[in-house]
Amino acid sequence: MIVNTKRFGPIEVDENQVITFASPILGFEDLARYVFIQLEEDLHPFEFLQSIEDENLTFIVMDPFLFYRDYEFQLESHWIESLNVKSEEELRVMVIVTARSAEDITCNLKAPIVLNTAKNIAAQIVLDRGDYTTRHSLLEGKKGEASNADLIKK
Questions:
Q1: Can you give the pLDDT at residue 56?
Q2: Which residues contact 23 (CB under 8 A, 6 or more apart)?
Q3: How far apart are the first and last CA of the chain?
Q4: Contacts for 17 with CB less than 8 Å, ≥ 6 apart
Q5: Are residues 147 and 70 in contact, defined by beta-carbon separation less than 8 angstroms?
Q6: Could you tell me the pTM of the whole model?
């Protein structure tokens, strides 16, 4: 199928790539279907999460474990059920990145996106515990400092 996007123009997406949010991204409750986009340019570790229902909505996302090796939390049982998780290997955790300027790039460790890669079901989960905020700096060398959260083994 063809998805129109403001940022990338029309893109071809296999229906099997579409991710459905069982619990929506905060502030975007009416939008549930997205696709990950990785550009051929070397933007690693960043990807884009593009809404297929709103061509204007694209999030920059990344794997938080690349910057915060001690990032951990407990996935509550109702999320395991909601995401239909059968094993830990099915899980992928991403966080939304905000780039306000070249010197002000942050990520939201307080509300990660948890994805069941086997079922393409996701949810943005607001963590109750821990020292995580919605604006953890990527440029201040804070790797491994977040240690007061629940556990999830990756």
A1: 95
A2: 82, 123, 124, 125
A3: 33
A4: 35, 36, 120
A5: yes
A6: 0.84
